Amino acid sequence: MADTTEMKIFQALVLRAQAFVPPSGVTVVLPGVAFAPTAQSKFVSVEVHFNRSIETDISLESDPIRQGFLRTNVMWPKGSAQVDAINLAGQLREFLRRGTKLVRVDTEVRIDEDPEIGVIVTGDTHITVPVTIRWRCFP
After folding, report:
1. CATH number of the domain within which 21 lies
2. I need a surface site. Which of 37, 55, 113, 125 has the fewest CB within 10 A?
3. Confidence of residue 1 (pLDDT cuts 50, 70, 90)
């Protein structure tokens, strides 16, 4: 059975996230990979999300434009320098900047918008700095 477009999109995004080289002491946690953080762990979690497709053909014969977002969460120990977490979020934003094109077999995933660095969320042990990267896959 041939790989679906969704599988190729997922693989393209995860391979790009895997190629990110974080600062020393920071782990990139990919989807489906087991990870047991401690209260002092510095890490980036990666999630792939799909949204509604956009139909472009009234005959419904052409593939739709698929879209979604890649969410990376910079997880930084509470009480550590928040500026370092924000700097890492900025590095992720730059690594997945507007104009990035990811190709997997015959499928191209494009990032046409500048990634968004979200509001800092304070948890029990970590602060979270979300970075949202919106993507589209054209037929």
Report:
1. 3.30.2000.20
2. 55
3. low
